[in-house]
Amino acid sequence: MTVPPGSDPAAVLSALGRSWTWLLGSAVATLVPGVLVLVWPDETLHVLAVLIGLYLLVTGLFRFVAVFAREDHGERLPGLLLSVLYVLAGVLCLRNPLQTITALSLIVGVVWLVSGVLTLYTALAARDLPHRGFVLAAALLAVVAGIVVLALPTESARALTRLLGLWLVLLGLAEVVLALAWRAALRRAGLTRPG
């Protein structure tokens, strides 16, 4: 990422959001809580709520910065709405980590459903979106996961924990692939150094 000194904040955020390492950082922020949830599925609801809350907050911040990498300002609104949704949901999870599994399920289900719909809209509206099919598939997966969680909010904590952990791991791996594809595209365009 190269930004001249004295640049305005939007230019700094734009350069940061276009960086493949920023995408990789977002992938790691998604993957790590997923692995933790799968490794310790019998932990208390308190730990699960804190992990999910932190994931939502960090992802919201990553998405906020990524919005500024978009050239078309019309594409920014869905991204901004999504980042605000993630941050608010993260605050809700962290504000009352002892809430019931049903409340946590509803928060996560709504975030996934809205996230999937907004990502689907962006993928369909942005004609020159790289890896459009991959983004569409991830959006549809988010919509389905949101519907499943919202349809079954009172299922056992163990089932929800496994579903959340598995979804976060799959999403994190998808984001790693996307980050590496972005790095390859930047190298082909001569915009980054090899190695």
From TrEMBL:
<feature type="transmembrane region" description="Helical">
    <location>
        <begin position="133"/>
        <end position="152"/>
    </location>
</feature>
<dbReference type="InterPro" id="IPR052712">
    <property type="entry name" value="Acid_resist_chaperone_HdeD"/>
</dbReference>
<feature type="transmembrane region" description="Helical">
    <location>
        <begin position="20"/>
        <end position="40"/>
    </location>
</feature>
<feature type="transmembrane region" description="Helical">
    <location>
        <begin position="101"/>
        <end position="121"/>
    </location>
</feature>
<protein>
    <recommendedName>
        <fullName>HdeD family acid-resistance protein</fullName>
    </recommendedName>
</protein>
<keyword id="KW-0812">Transmembrane</keyword>
<feature type="transmembrane region" description="Helical">
    <location>
        <begin position="47"/>
        <end position="65"/>
    </location>
</feature>
<feature type="transmembrane region" description="Helical">
    <location>
        <begin position="164"/>
        <end position="185"/>
    </location>
</feature>
<keyword id="KW-0472">Membrane</keyword>
<dbReference type="GO" id="GO:0005886">
    <property type="term" value="C:plasma membrane"/>
</dbReference>
<feature type="transmembrane region" description="Helical">
    <location>
        <begin position="77"/>
        <end position="94"/>
    </location>
</feature>
<keyword id="KW-1133">Transmembrane helix</keyword>
<dbReference type="InterPro" id="IPR005325">
    <property type="entry name" value="DUF308_memb"/>
</dbReference>
<dbReference type="Pfam" id="PF03729">
    <property type="entry name" value="DUF308"/>
</dbReference>
